[in-house]
Design a protein that fits this description.
The protein has 693 residues and is α/β, with parallel strands linked by helices. The chain folds into 4 domains: 2-268, 2-enoyl-CoA Hydratase, Chain A, domain 1 (Alpha-Beta Complex), CATH 3.90.226.10; 304-480, Rossmann fold, CATH 3.40.50.720; 519-587, N-(1-d-carboxylethyl)-l-norvaline Dehydrogenase, domain 2, CATH 1.10.1040.10; 597-690, Orthogonal Bundle (N-(1-d-carboxylethyl)-l-norvaline Dehydrogenase, domain 2), CATH 1.10.1040.50. The strands form 4 sheets. Strands 13-12-11-14-15-16-17-18 form an 8-stranded mixed sheet, sandwiched between helices. 47% of the residues are buried. Bound molecules: (S)-3-Hydroxyhexanoyl-CoA. Its main location: other. It is found in: Peroxisome.
């Protein structure tokens, strides 16, 4: 065995040279890895072997370029194209042996091998689009040459990790080899290449698959049209499409590569990719809790109890059944329980690619009950009952009496005080908040609320469990509304004030939609129902909501709310709402004023950032990036703007936000009072990103 460098070895297996990479955690293409590959291929090309296999140690094949190197000054090292040229021009067959994931630059390297073999569990893809990028090492030109234009469009704009079996059917993998026997399979394949004198396939020289799309611009036009909604606001999907167009229309491979390079650099230096790369690490950092070490022993969660079979309880239960954990769902009444279970079944049956056998298996893991005593053998119990402190206290008193020692008692409250809830139990160390977002089987975010006495292993178990059920967890401390709803209330307040000053609901919604949110606050209220928490008997017609609900304008479900809706639920501005608003303004004796889009945006967003600073000031979030994780995953903040705290830095940092808050405070009062920490950060010239709570 020859040690090429600290991450690369070259070994000889009979007449085959094997280059092995070992650069944990994911064999990303750091300068060291590129150097190792370059030198490894150089040595293998010069040896008397007959073929070369590239394989990786650890959990995965190369998972891409090293994202942490982007934007940092480069060390002198071999470039990726140097490595790729060395592979493609090798005088003997090069075989890439793939397990885990071959992603981004990793797949681009594999595409420069003459052949690819993979184990069935492997996945391949070009996920750069999720980082606001495009494959910048020839992937945009090679992939369509292998899988065809339409498949390449889909793969590159979705970033999907394609399972090896599908990849084989697309021609991306040449042979599937037995699971756990990758090296043997790759060596056998290499020897077959030699024995059969198989050609040294250079993807860059084969244009056959591109021919089908030549002179057919409608392929691209239709793809753009079909996905317009999904791509709205993002720069990267369009740049990816343009590169595939260039592959089809350029006179040569190199001409296409030049287009790729130019568009790649454009994205790389733009703010969207900076935001999306930041966000990639933000999500992973959120799982790390400074005083809860990674090796904290976990509590075993073999069975879960959920109290409440409504929309929330049902959605929560599905998450656990999906990963094979049995759930007991307890309701008060049989009909509510039956309805809840029927809804879960319907959700499974209607989900994309639903498989009846899988549905049955998951349903068989769900047991309905009317008796809370059935929680006795559960390891985790989550209550999803009505949001009232007296009800929660009653529930936790009962749970304390019923549940076994060591069980985790969780509340799905979205704003109530976890410490107060925990105080009615004899085991506050076992109590935690697990705030799921609706629909709980779909939404990615889990706000984990740490009470004053919550034990570290309860926190560690909750964070790990979140990952297991496919959620992104962020830890928050106890305060009204935690991170997400606490900041949202700032935006809601300003949105309501704005429409009483002269902006219309559709003006506010349009500005926030154009900013990148899926919908504005008023469209959202119409969707959720204006009558949530509204009691007819108590209505005095004093608020706009009273007036709308009294007129049976309760949202989309009644065909009208802030907006009017047609039979297809298309919204249009409502004269009724406009008149009602004007009547309210007239009562105040003030005149409505013209409010600019800029003011709408700043008044909705800046107080949120200020509140984020307060949350950090009070130590209710660990770091600014956790706040961004909450907002991107739970509230539709556009990921290409990174999250509210990242965005604050992007537009000028604490100094700029402070200046605006002061300006608004001078004319509109203390809703805009800057956080003390905001003043401090601005004075010290620091960024929000520097903040740790
Ligand atoms: C690219 O290739 C551009 C090219 O076109 C070339 C242009 C010239 N770099 O996610 P995990 C770290 S762009 C650096 O928790 P999993 C990650 O931060 C790239 N670090 O594990 C974490 O660190 P820590 C295209 C990376 O098993 C640890 O590895 N490729 C990278 O749940 C474990 O990660 C991608 O976009 C990286 N590329 O999932 C793939 N990847 O432990 C991005 C991971 O300190 N990666 N880390 O927190 C992934 O999708 C997942 O990490 C993967 C593993 C599926 C591989």
């Amino acid at each position: 065995m020859t040690e090429i460098n600290s991450v690369t070895t070259l070994t000889r297996e009979g007449d085959v040279d094997v280059i092995t990479l070992n650069s944990p955690p994911v064999n990303a293409l750091s300068a060291n890895v590129r150097d190792g590959l370059f030198e490894g291929f150089k040595a293998a090309a010069a040896s008397d072997s007959k073929a070369i296999v590239l394989i990786c140690d650890g959990r995965t094949f190369i998972a891409g370029a090293d994202i942490s190197e982007f934007g940092a000054p480069g060390k002198p090292s071999a470039s990726l194209p140097d490595v790729q040229n060395m592979m493609e021009n090798s005088p003997k067959p090069v075989i890439a042996a793939i397990h885990g994931t071959a992603l981004g630059g990793g797949l681009e390297v594999a595409l420069c091998a003459h052949y690819r073999v993979a184990v069935p569990s492997a996945k391949l893809g070009l996920p750069e689009v999720a980082l606001g990028l495009l494959p910048g090492a020839g992937g945009t030109q090679r992939l369509p040459r292998v899988v065809g234009v339409e498949n390449a469009l889909e793969m590159m704009t979705s970033g999907r990790h394609v399972p090896a079996k599908e990849a084989a059917s697309l021609g991306l993998v040449d042979e599937l080899v037995e699971e756990g026997k990758l090296k043997e399979g790759a060596l056998a394949f290499a020897r077959k290449c030699v024995a059969e004198n198989k050609p040294l396939v250079k993807i860059s020289e084969n244009n056959t698959k591109l021919e089908a799309a030549k002179g057919k611009p409608e392929i691209f036009a239709e793809f753009r049209k079909k996905n317009a909604r999904k791509f709205r606001g993002f720069d990267a999907p369009e740049a990816n499409i343009k590169c595939i167009e260039a592959a089809v229309n350029s006179a040569s491979f190199d001409e296409g590569l030049a287009v790729e390079r130019k568009l790649f650099m454009g994205l790389m230096t733009g703010s969207q990719s900076a935001a999306q790369r930041y966000y990639f690490f933000a999500e992973r950092t959120a799982a790390k809790i400074p005083d809860v070490p990674d090796d904290t022993p976990l509590r075993e969660i073999k069975k879960v109890g959920v109290l409440g079979a409504g929309t929330m309880g049902g959605g929560i239960s599905m998450n656990f059944a999906n990963v094979g954990i049995p759930v007991v769902i307890v309701e008060l009444k049989q009909d509510a329980l039956d309805r809840g279970l029927a809804t879960i079944r319907k959700n499974y049956e209607r989900s994309r690619g639903a498989d009846p056998a899988v549905t049955e298996k998951r349903m068989s893991l769900l047991t309905g009950s009317l008796d809370m005593n059935d929680f006795a053998d559960c390891d985790l119990i989550i209550e999803a009952v009505f949001e009232r402190m007296d009800i929660k206290k009653d529930v936790f008193t009962k749970l304390d009496a019923i549940c076994k020692p060591g069980a985790i008692l969780a509340s799905n409250t979205s704003y109530l005080n976890i410490d107060e809830i925990a105080s009615v139990t004899k085991r506050p160390q076992d109590v935690i908040g697990l705030h799921f977002f609706s629909p709980a089987n779909v939404m990615k975010l889990l706000e984990v609320i740490r009470g004053e006495k919550t034990a570290k292993d309860v926190i560690a178990t909750s964070m790990k469990l979140a990952k297991k059920i496919g959620k992104i967890a962020a830890l928050a401390g106890v305060c009204p509304g935690f991170i997400g709803n606490r900041m949202l209330s700032q935006r809601q307040r300003e949105a309501q004030k704005l429409i009483m000053e002269g902006a219309m609901p559709w003006d506010v919604d349009r500005v926030l939609y154009d900013f990148g949110f899926p919908m504005g606050p008023f469209a959202m209220s119409d969707l959720a129902g204006l009558d949530i928490g509204w009691v007819k008997e108590n209505s005095k017609g004093e608020t706009l909501r009273d007036v709308l609900c009294e007129a049976d304008r309760r949202g989309q479900k009644t065909g009208a709310g802030y907006y009017d809706y047609d039979e297809n639920r298309n919204a249009k501005p409502s004269e009724f709402t406009e008149n009602a608003i004007n009547a309210f303004i007239a009562k105040t004796g003030k005149n409505p004023r013209k409010i600019s889009d800029e003011e709408i945006l700043e008044r909705c967003i800046f107080p949120m950032i200020n509140e984020g600073v307060k949350i950090l000031e009070e130590g209710k979030a660990i770091r600014a990036s956790d706040i961004d994780v909450v907002w991107v995953n739970g509230y539709g903040w556009p990921v290409y703007r990174g999250g509210p705290m990242f965005y604050g830095d992007l537009i000028g940092g604490p100094a700029k936000v402070l200046e605006k808050m002061k300006e608004f405070q001078a004319t509109m009062g203390d809703d805009f009072k800057p956080a003390a920490l905001l003043e401090k950060l601005a004075a010290e010239g620091k960024k929000f990103g520097d903040l740790k709570g």
